[in-house]
């Protein structure tokens, strides 16, 4: 039997890559942590298959750099300094989650939900927000883990969500609009600082701000079953 935390987390993020925590949820994490509410982050890969921007010369070096970037980001957010909060880093293969057996990913998510007892779990939506196969596979694993829990023991399930439907028809067909909005403007300076910790992801930062500037100060989510 799994050992359960005596008091659960307020919010648990389960995402595939270092940096997936920061663009859409850094302000929400800061809000909970400032209120004394512990939060958690589970990152499934080390991000070793991402772009290097010339900052390193091998997947192994990129993995180490992205781990250091994530540590710096979480320090700015305050998660790794907050009593009771949790950060766990797994080493599933970056960019190839869809080629892995799904069962270990599902079990990773299920075990975390049982042990950490979050009020809410946050992950990517069915279309992965941008169709990234790691995002989509993470959604499949988290949703399967959530479905496997008895209804009375399930946390609330939230997905990242944007008011702007995707341009690609296949992604738009699975788009879920936001039904939860969080004003995080009080944390915008620290949020930008946390984003900037992910130096190897500078192009992703530019793309996010260009496409979704409003989501720097307002974080939006789709709560499953809230409609």
UniProtKB/TrEMBL annotation:
InterPro entries per record: GlcNAc_PI_deacetylase-related (IPR003737), LmbE-like_dom_sf (IPR024078)
Superkingdom assignment: Bacteria
Gene3D superfamilies: LmbE-like
SUPFAM superfamilies hit by this protein: LmbE-like
Coiled-coil segments on the chain, per record: none
One MF annotation (Gene Ontology) recorded for this entry: hydrolase activity, acting on carbon-nitrogen (but not peptide) bonds, in linear amides
Name of the featured protein: PIG-L family deacetylase
The organism's taxonomic lineage, starting at the top: Bacteria, Thermotogati, Deinococcota, Deinococci, Deinococcales
């Amino acid at each position: 039997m799994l050992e359960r935390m005596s008091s659960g987390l307020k919010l648990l993020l389960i995402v595939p890559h270092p940096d997936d925590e920061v663009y859409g949820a850094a302000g929400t994490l800061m809000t909970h942590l400032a209120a004394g509410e512990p939060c958690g982050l589970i990152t499934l890969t080390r991000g070793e298959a991402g772009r290097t921007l010339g900052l390193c010369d091998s997947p192994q070096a990129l993995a180490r750099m992205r781990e250091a970037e994530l540590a710096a980001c979480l320090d700015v957010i305050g998660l790794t300094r907050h009593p009771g909060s949790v950060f766990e880093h797994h080493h599933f293969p970056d960019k190839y989650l869809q080629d892995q057996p799904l069962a270990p990913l599902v079990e990773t998510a299920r075990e975390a939900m049982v042990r950490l007892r979050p009020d809410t779990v946050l992950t990517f939506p069915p279309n992965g927000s941008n169709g990234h196969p790691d995002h989509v596979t993470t959604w499949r694993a988290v949703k399967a883990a959530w479905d496997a829990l008895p209804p009375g023991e399930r946390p609330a399930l939230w997905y990242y969500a944007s008011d702007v439907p995707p341009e690609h028809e296949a992604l738009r067909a699975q788009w879920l609009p936001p039904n939860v909005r969080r004003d995080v403007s009080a944390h915008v300076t620290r949020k930008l600082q946390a984003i900037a910790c992910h130096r190897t992801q500078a192009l992703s930062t530019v793309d996010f701000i260009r496409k979704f500037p409003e989501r720097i100060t307002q974080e939006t989510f789709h709560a499953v079953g809230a409609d």
